[in-house]
Structures are given as structure tokens and as C-alpha cells.
Write a structure and sequence with these properties.
The chain is α+β, with helices and mostly antiparallel strands and 385 residues long. The protein has twelve helices and 19 strands. The strands form six sheets. The protein has a four-stranded antiparallel beta sheet. It has a four-stranded antiparallel beta sheet with strand order 11-18-15-16. Strands 13-12-17-14 form a four-stranded mixed beta sheet, with no helix packed on it. A hairpin with a 4-residue loop joins strand 12 (224-227) and strand 13. The longest helix has 41 residues, at 325-365. The radius of gyration is 22 Å and the shape is globular.
């Protein structure tokens, strides 16, 4: 019987990363990826800090990251895991870098192992802190891994799950292209003195929001996403909205690096709490409103030193860059197909992610053979879910 290994025994390097905040360089070609940027076990570059080469060198002086190294968030929150995709990424605040021993543990298998529900639960159980949960470095090093299959089987399992994630990443690249084209169309159509007050072109539906406590949500599980200021917080059994709309962060995380607001573009049935403004376009399409808002600087409108807040009154006062009235219909006609495709890829990725999440524990446990998972993954990747 083989002995189970700890992470320390299965890795050649485990490093606790920088504890300070990286200085932002808007022109920097490198990214410091801390826990806020590790969303859905991928890197959200809009939330990563863009840094200079000098800062990158300073932050990686103890260890130069390699493509494929695993980053584990050990605080705020505990548990997200990503693989370093390029040499432009520096491990940021509250993360640990893990480099597996190539002859023992496949790095991609390690990533999938750590994001599996069973191991996520174990990581959370080992965390400490009543206010902010965190993992001690010693706890990470001593974390006992389940029985590891042979390396070749690890690689086959990782390849099966990776086929789905590759399709998701491909869709994300298309989405970035579509989004960039839509923004470019808007910017080219704007002129220097073409502004509208946000409150004059936006309709607020904040009175329809209803907050639910975590206990309330646990007692009424269902298929409808429950949105907060920055994303989905859970799923419930009923919905308040069923339309295309914007959610703009009202308090908490309300502004991104660079000053643009936290905006979510949502559609379909959902529930929204009271930490996000609910907005649709008025006299302009919701899509045109969203693009203009996403490239606006709202930092001067944010109040609150401890708890940042972007109030409805302040948001309504925002001067929004929009094309002249006589150009708006043409701009709208050009951007709508791009954003319709963007929505389709978001939905497709949701289906693919759901399939991956079903396959992951089955493959890792051996309840599903790798060949069966291959068939399901390749079919899903071809059909987009």
C-alpha cells in the first residue's frame, strides 16, 4: 500500500508570496495576481494590478514563476486556485505558489485536485480566523493529498478536464475581441463635447431589489442566480428580474483599478440584492449604456473611506461619453451583433463549466473512466455545451 503524500512532499517548491500591495503602473506589461483577481479559478485581469518590470523583478526575487505553476489563495477568500498562464504573471497578495515534482504529480492534475469540492472543503476546514479566514503556510505544507493515481493516468484526467477549459478559454478570447471591437466602435463615434448625464439616459429599478441573508439562501436553493455587487453569490428558488440589464456596484467593491465602475451585464431570470444598482437604458440601448459606463471614470464619485459607496445620486450625476444623438442608432446597429455573440458565449461557457464540475469529482475518484470522460468532454467542446 502506497503512503499518501503531503503537498510539501509532492512539491519541489512551496512559497508564500508577497504580503504588501503592488504599486500600480497603468503602462506595465506585468500583472500581480492576488486573491481578488482569482475569480472562478481563473485570472480576472481587470482586477489584477498592472505592474512595472522593476516591481515584477522585486516581487519574484525569491522565486521566478514558471508557466504551469499553481497559485493557491490562502486568505480572503481561502481556496481559489489558478495556474500561471504566462511569464507576465507575478504571484500577488495572500497567495502561495506551488510547483509540483514532475515525476510525482502533474501540475494540471494538482490544480484540478485542489479545486475539487472535497479538497476545497478540507482546505476551508483547516483555515483559521473568526473575521477573515486564512490558511497558515504550515497547514498548506502539511495538507495530505488523497491517493494519487499513476502519473500517466493523472495526465489523462487533466487532459480530459483541460479540453473543456480550453474551449472556455477560447470563448473568452473571442469575447474579449468582440468587446474590444464594440468599445472601439463607440469611441470612434464620440466627439469631445458629446456627453449625457447618466441619470437622463438610465432607468433605475433599485426598488425591486430584495436582500436575502446567507441563511435565507441556504433554505431556498434553486436555479436562479442571486447577484451581489460583483457577481453571483448563490442560487435561489425564485427570481425578481427577467430582462437584459446592468448591475452597477453600489457599496463594497464599486470601482476597478483605473477608476471604471464594477458593472455586470446580465440577462434572464435572476435575483438581485441591495448592493448593486439595477439599471436599463432609457433613450439609449442598455448595451450602449453599458459600454459607455464601462470606460468611464467614477472614482471621484465614490464616497466612504472604510466602505466605498457609489450612491444613486452620484451615479446619476456622471457625465457619460456618448455619440451625438444622430449617430447613436448607427452605433447601436453595429454593436448589437457583437454583444449578442458575447452573450451566447457566456451562456455556452456556463454549460461547459457545469459539465466540467460534474466530471471533475467523478474522474478524480475513479467512479468514471477516463475514456468516458473524454467522449463527454470532446462532444461538449465541439457543441459548446
Amino acid at each position: 500500500m502506497t503512503r499518501r503524500l503531503t503537498l510539501d512532499e509532492a512539491c519541489e517548491v512551496i512559497v508564500d508570496c508577497e504580503h504588501k500591495t503592488a504599486p500600480v503602473d497603468p503602462t506595465g506589461e506585468y500583472f500581480a495576481v492576488g486573491t481578488p483577481a482569482m475569480r472562478d479559478n481563473t485570472i480576472d485581469y481587470s482586477l489584477a494590478r498592472r505592474i512595472s518590470h522593476a516591481t515584477f523583478e522585486e516581487w519574484t526575487r525569491r522565486l521566478t514563476p514558471k508557466v504551469g505553476d499553481v497559485l493557491l489563495a490562502r486568505e480572503a477568500p481561502v481556496g481559489p486556485v489558478v495556474q500561471i498562464p504566462s511569464l507576465r504573471v507575478a504571484p500577488g497578495q495572500r497567495t502561495m505558489l506551488l510547483r509540483s515534482k514532475a515525476e510525482v504529480l502533474d501540475p494540471l492534475y494538482l490544480r484540478y485536485l485542489l479545486v475539487s469540492p472535497e479538497q476545497q472543503d478540507r482546505l476551508l476546514q483547516r483555515s483559521e480566523g473568526s473575521t477573515v479566514a486564512h490558511l497558515n503556510v504550515a497547514e498548506v505544507r502539511s495538507f495530505l493529498l488523497p491517493d494519487l493515481p499513476p502519473l500517466q493516468e493523472q495526465q489523462a484526467i487533466a487532459a480530459t478536464l483541460g479540453a473543456i477549459d480550453d474551449k472556455i478559454d477560447s470563448n473568452r478570447r473571442l469575447m474579449n475581441t468582440e468587446w474590444g471591437l464594440a468599445v472601439s466602435i463607440l469611441e470612434r463615434a464620440c466627439v469631445d463635447d458629446s456627453f449625457s448625464r447618466f441619470g437622463d439616459v438610465a432607468e433605475f429599478h433599485n426598488s425591486r431589489r430584495v436582500p436575502l441573508s446567507s441563511r435565507d439562501r441556504e433554505g431556498r436553493p434553486g436555479p436562479y442566480p442571486y447577484y451581489g455587487a460583483t457577481g453571483v453569490l448563490g442560487y435561489v428558488d425564485d427570481y425578481l428580474f427577467d430582462q437584459v440589464m446592468l448591475l452597477v456596484g453600489e457599496d463594497g467593491s464599486v470601482v476597478r483599478p483605473g477608476g471604471s465602475p464594477v458593472v455586470q451585464y446580465v440577462w434572464g431570470r435572476c435575483w438581485v440584492n441591495n448592493h448593486a444598482h439595477v439599471v436599463i437604458g432609457q433613450s439609449v440601448s442598455t448595451e450602449l449604456l453599458m459600454l459607455a459606463l464601462s470606460i468611464s471614470d467614477v472614482s471621484a464619485l465614490v464616497t466612504g473611506a472604510v466602505q466605498p459607496k457609489l450612491s444613486m445620486g452620484n451615479l446619476k450625476s456622471l457625465k457619460l461619453g456618448l455619440p451625438p444623438v444622430d449617430r447613436r442608432a448607427g452605433v447601436d446597429e453595429a454593436i448589437q451583433p457583437l454583444l449578442a455573440a458575447w452573450r451566447g458565449q457566456v451562456d455556452q461557457n456556463a454549460h461547459l463549466a457545469a459539465l466540467r464540475d460534474v466530471l471533475l469529482p467523478e474522474l478524480l475518484s475513479g467512479r468514471l473512466a477516463v475514456g468516458q470522460g473524454d467522449d463527454l468532454a470532446s462532444t461538449a467542446a465541439e457543441r459548446g455545451g
